[in-house]
Amino acid sequence: MTQQTPLRRVALTLAAAGLPVLPLRAGKAPFGNCHQCASNACGGRPNMKTTGPCQCPGVCHAWAAATTDPRVLTSPPWMAAWRHAVCVAYHPGAAGLTVVDLDDAAAVAWARQTLPATRTVLTRRGEHWIYRGAMQSHNAVRSGVDIKSTMSYVRYLGPGTGPLAALPEAVRALAVKSPTVARPAPRGASVPVPVGGGDCPHRTPTYLDRGIAMAERRITTASSGVHATVYRTFLAVLSTHGRCGCLTDTHMQRLFDAAQTKGESPRHCTEAWTNALTTLGL
Description:
This protein is an alpha+beta fold. 37% of the residues lie in helices and 14% in strands.
């Protein structure tokens, strides 16, 4: 019996219970897109916010590849992926769940004092607290705490203990109170203004979205030096858009998600972003 056989069996069991699953490769990262789907040239999966459905049968588009269909999970492209997989992950938001990822003992202690008890899964350094209800995912809502739900994936580490509790307002409030993405320009800083005056051009949705999309592609197509590429990309985005206040949590989340598809951890993403802010004096 190979190592991959139990992983596939676990995936099929979870899928039968209604949990959309996908394989992860070394580094707890999803498998990269095939050449036809690179940089979302195919238009993305139907459940992604992109144009047009993707007909690729492979394990593409990270969290959006998660499925409960046993035919897909045992299809030839997926079987090939299972042979190289190291663990099983799931898309909590698609199952109507939210995972509060507590990365260390301090975060666990905070949760026990602040959040209502719910199903708990032990991790290597902390715990996953799983709630019934979905919301937008957010990284680094406080030290050692990430929220994983829609448009994200979580490594499956077992069924956990305790009954599922409903998603509390305290968790939703964490996202609202999460740190702002770009700080206001310091007093006296010179912010470019278009000739003839007017609003900051970075506030034009098309201009900003194009810049974020290019940054995502730069990260997801990196073949080596991913950590350095992520930092340089964050630095470039902040140097262009960081002083006018046009960046939002959604823009940062898109960049963090792109970095995590290449194996970067939420903590590394946060550190790279913070270092870029410091370098630019923001």
